[in-house]
Amino acid sequence: MMNIRTRAWIYLLCLVPFRGFAQTPPPAAPTGANRLVTLDVAVTDKSGKPIPGLQQQDFTLLDNKQPTKILSFRAIQGGAAAADPPVEVILLVDEVNTAFRGVSYARQEIGKFLGRNGGELEHPTSLAFLSDTGVASTSTSRDGNVLVGEMNQNKNGLRIIGRTQGVYGADDRVQLSLGALEQFANYESSRPGRKLLIWLSPGWPLLTGPRIELSSKDEQRLFGLIVALSDALRQARITIYSIDPQGLGGVGGLRDLRYEGYVKGVKKASQVNIGNLALQVLAEQSGGRVFNYDNDVTSEIATSVADADAFYVLTFEALPGDGPNEYHTLEVKLDKPGLKARTRTGYYAQP
């Protein structure tokens, strides 16, 4: 049985970070154009290199394992010059969930990335810093030297929230982290184009500790939060990349794969667990990637950003659900061997 402290954590997790969603009335059942879903699809070879030049006939889109018609298709190649509006890159330094040494290293590696090619960036880029006072962001620029200057002006503040404060510290960190993600989703939902949110962090504390048994009410709250966040990130066209600046050093030299048990989409409230809201899980589900096996953060950032150099934009009409919040899996298959497609892994259909 959960103790009072853990139940309070679950309650706050469900209500506080997404108070904006909780106050929004349920949407009317979508019809016609309102069912249109946009998917950003990255295609890579076995080495992870982006593959341009594919045609619509090379793609098969499966909705709940059934082929569905692709209504529109665009191949984006050549980086910023090809995308309209251009893809935006957001590099977020997580000062809440990362040890001080990891924060310092992340900033150092970001500086190396921004300084490449004389500071000339192919994509509009901004920096964000998550601290115990919220999110602070820089301007958006294609001049990496300007961004390095702004980063150097943003000094690490004294963090009130310690990583060793037990459940109370964990509670605050989860709320701040998910609240920041909500903030990005709300802001970007009104702005067109694709966004790559590269989150430098070992993730917030949802994958550690014993599995928590939830009451049916807790399950319903968490399921509602999962649905709201999934919809918000999809509509904002945000792809998340999770980079652990501590690399293998953060887990005693072993790659941490605990998140993989939660990546599969949640179909109903009785299936939920707090691990379903972990950073790494959300990254995989958004069509992004998880990097937690290397200390070469500069290269991992570059690999993430390379997804904007060549990708494909598909639209399709979502199938109606038999009931509210019916989960549908999505899969893109290619008719060329040796290639892999990454995109959002599912969506929640409405009647």
Short structural description:
The protein has 351 residues and is α/β, with parallel strands linked by helices. The protein has 8 helices and 15 strands.
Q: Could you explain how this protein is built, in words?
A:
Helix 1 (4-15) packs parallel to helix 5 (166-188), helix 1 (4-15) packs parallel to helix 6 and helix 3 (100-115) packs antiparallel against helix 4. Strand 2 (59-63) and strand 3 (66-68) form a beta hairpin. 29% of the residues lie in helices and 25% in strands. It contains 8 helices and 15 strands. It has 351 residues and is an alpha/beta fold.
Give the tags.
351 residues, seven-stranded mixed β-sheet, Rossmann fold, 29% helix, disordered N terminus
The class by helix and strand makeup works out as alpha/beta
The proportion of residues forming helix, as a percent range, comes to: 25-40%
For the terminal residues, how far apart are their CA atoms?
Answer: 36 Å
β-strand percent reads 15-25%
What's the order of the H and E elements? HHEEEEEHEEEHHEHEHEHEEEE
Shape: globular
Please give the number of β-strands. 15
Question: Superfamily at the CATH H level of the domain at 4-9 and 82-311?
Answer: von Willebrand factor, type A domain
CATH level 1 class label of the domain at 4-9 and 82-311: Alpha Beta
Q: What is the CATH architecture descriptor of the domain at 4-9 and 82-311?
A: 3-Layer(aba) Sandwich
Give the helix tally. Answer: 8
Q: What's the quaternary structure here?
A: single chain
C-alpha Rg (nearest Å)? 20 Å
Mean pLDDT: 85
Which blocks of ≥5 consecutive residues have pLDDT under 50?
Answer: 1-8, 22-32, 250-254
Q: Provide the CATH topology of the domain at 4-9 and 82-311.
A: Rossmann fold
**How can the largest sheet be summarized?**
7 strands, mixed
